[in-house]
Specification:
The structure holds 2 protein chains of 2 kinds. The radius of gyration of chain A is 19 Å and the shape is globular. The longest helix of chain A has 21 residues, at 79-99. By secondary structure, chain A is of the alpha+beta class. Chain A has helices at 79-99, 107-123, 163-175, 182-199, 232-235; strands at 28-30, 33-38, 41-47, 50-52, 55-58, 64-67, 71-78, 130-138, 141-147, 153-155, 158-160, 207-213, 216-219. Chain B is α+β, with helices and mostly antiparallel strands. Chain B is 37% helix and 22% strand. Chain B has 7 helices and 10 strands. The N and C termini of chain B lie far apart (51 Å). Classes of the chains: A alpha+beta, B alpha+beta. Chains A and B meet through helix 2 of A and helix 2 of B. Chain A: It is found in: Cytoplasm; Nucleus. Chain A: This is Proteasome subunit beta. Chain A: InterPro entries: Ntn_hydrolases_N (IPR029055), Proteasome_alpha (IPR050115), Proteasome_beta4 (IPR016295), Proteasome_bsu_CS (IPR016050), Proteasome_sua/b (IPR001353), Proteasome_suB-type (IPR023333). Chain A: Belongs to the peptidase T1B family.
Chain lengths: 245, 276
């Protein structure tokens, strides 16, 4: 099965004009995605922010989308590259559906396809500047994996991108266990998202939680978390080091 | 079929709407030595007759592994068959690499059929002169397809192609309704019995046939001569005993699985020695 790669005017490494066609740095970016496997499938959380550098420019960006019948894709990083990936996957799912033969792409297949795309782009020095989280359920088997912009790809019981790796994963390593109920799973994700909200400057307090089970995908309406700013440590943060912030 | 003025080019229609070159290609399939395929819900067995050019040479390979879950048996121009098998392997492995998942056999046969169709619509090409029995798995279980030089493909419960395949088809037509629920062993036995039909009188030996199996949880592999011979022994011996006992003037008896004691007494010298 072939996939189209955007046409460039030559090897980006050797040809100067080709530079204008390749990704040099990201512009509008989404921050962390956090996802966990639970009893019935996968739960994924993301906020709805799109930052333009240090400005929190866009506050209604959906960074999680359903793919086909069995998968859910979340992305952090460059939003326009995420939209490009959605176009590729659209074509992939369309062709799969056109076969109309009872076979369908599962989350493992989509994950591997994305790994190939990301790695191939990285090899051309024209990466899609995203870290992708792919979760899904097919025939009772739950799948959760991740692909980075350089094509590093793996599966795990819980994954996170960006700051989530540093702030959320430690919480998940301690508190995740197999067969979480839906309520416990959501509580766990909200705990991670709250920490990210406090500590990640590109996070906004408007998040969505998506769930994927054998039945399909549901993405929640946006909502915000209750925050508490009266912690003693927040009161006088520079107490130990005058002049810092 | 006789020569006529519309059969030079594959791109020439006859006034009756036929493409004679394509039909001639299908004749080539009928000339090849027999290949047989049958399937149950979970397994596919492909078997073929080993024909050698002469006593001095080895026999041609007619069954190919395409992937762990797909095998193909060919009849006709074996060179064309080899080339198409290579194409199938390439498709299967490319899919596997991109999606880390086995290519559904139903999709592979469509690619194959489309490839064959191209050769029926280009004036500088000729149709592939080989018929392919493709057996494989997909999400809904085991499937058997027949791909034709015309670019058509059909799904079958059981089928036979090549020379004297009609005898095998007749045998299969009698039994195919039970194949769906057959055990793996029964399926293999039926395949070998179908091969025997195409030999029409020649004694069935394991060196004369090649048998391959694939199924859910069982990757494609060939059965070794020993295993095939053991299966042959179970029914050849039965036929043996019946013959010998009939020779003694006794009434028809229930076939015995193990060495017929009653038969041994007759001591027929012309029969190949059987292991007890």
């Amino acid at each position: 099965m072939t996939f189209t790669i955007p046409i460039d005017n030559g090897d980006a490494v050797k040809n100067a004009e080709a530079d204008s066609q390749r990704t040099l740095y990201p512009y509008v970016t989404g921050t962390s995605i956090v996802a966990i496997k639970y009893k019935d499938g996968v739960l994924m959380a993301s906020d709805m922010g799109g930052s333009y550098g240090s400005t929190l420019r866009y506050k209604n960006i959906e960074r999680m989308k359903a793919i086909g019948k069995h998968s859910l894709l979340g992305a952090s990083g460059e939003i326009s590259d995420f939209q490009e990936i959605l176009r590729y996957l659209d074509e992939l799912v369309l062709n799969d559906n056109m076969w109309d033969d009872g076979n369908s792409l599962g989350p493992k297949e989509v994950h591997n396809y994305l790994t190939r795309v990301m790695y191939n782009r990285r090899n051309k020095f024209n990466p899609l500047w995203n870290t992708l989280v792919l979760g899904g359920v097919k025939n009772g088997e739950t799948y959760l994996g991740m692909v980075s912009m350089i094509g590093v790809s793996f599966e795990d019981n819980h994954v996170a991108t960006g700051f989530g790796n540093h702030l959320a994963r430690p919480i998940l390593r301690d508190e995740w266990h197999a067969d979480l109920s839906f309520e416990d799973g959501v509580k766990l994700l909200e705990k991670c998202m709250r920490v990210l909200l406090y500590r990640d400057r590109s996070a906004i307090n408007k998040l969505q939680i998506a769930k994927i089970t054998e039945e399909g995908v549901t993405v929640s309406q946006p909502y915000s978390l209750k925050t508490f700013w009266e912690f003693k440590a927040f009161h006088n943060p520079t107490a130990g080091a005058e002049g810092s912030w | 079929m006789f020569r006529n003025q519309y059969d030079t080019d594959v791109t020439t229609w006859s006034p009756t709407g036929r493409l004679f070159q394509v039909e001639y290609a299908m004749e080539a399939v009928k000339q090849g030595s027999a290949a047989i395929g049958l399937r149950s819900r979970s397994h596919v067995v492909l078997a073929c007759v080993n024909k050698a050019q002469s006593e001095l040479s080895s026999h041609q390979k007619k069954i190919f592994k395409v992937d762990d879950h797909i095998g193909v048996a060919i009849a006709g121009l074996t060179a064309d068959g080899r080339v198409l098998s290579r194409y199938m392997r390439s498709e299967a492995i490319n899919h596997s690499f991109t999606y880390e998942s086995p290519l559904p056999v139903g999709r592979l046969v469509v690619h194959l059929a489309d490839k064959a169709q191209v050769c029926t619509q280009r004036s500088w090409k000729r149709p592939y002169g080989v018929g392919l029995l493709v057996g494989g798995l997909d999400e809904s279980g085991a499937h058997l397809y027949y791909n034709c030089p015309s670019g058509n493909y059909f799904e079958y419960q059981a089928f036979a192609i090549g020379s004297r395949s009609q005898a095998a088809k007749t045998y299969l037509e009698r039994r195919f309704e039970s194949f769906g629920d057959s055990s793996r062993e029964d399926l293999i036995k039926d395949a070998i019995l179908a091969v025997r039909e195409t030999l029409q009188g020649e004694t069935l030996k394991s060196s004369l046939c090649t048998v391959s199996v694939l199924g859910v949880g069982e990757p494609f592999h060939f059965l070794d001569q020993e295993t095939i011979q053991k299966v042959i022994d179970t029914f050849e011996k039965v036929a043996e005993d019946e013959e010998v006992e009939a020779g003694d003037g006794e009434a028809a008896v229930a076939p015995a699985e193990e060495g017929g004691d009653g038969g041994a007494g007759a001591g027929d010298q012309d029969v190949a020695p059987m292991e007890m």
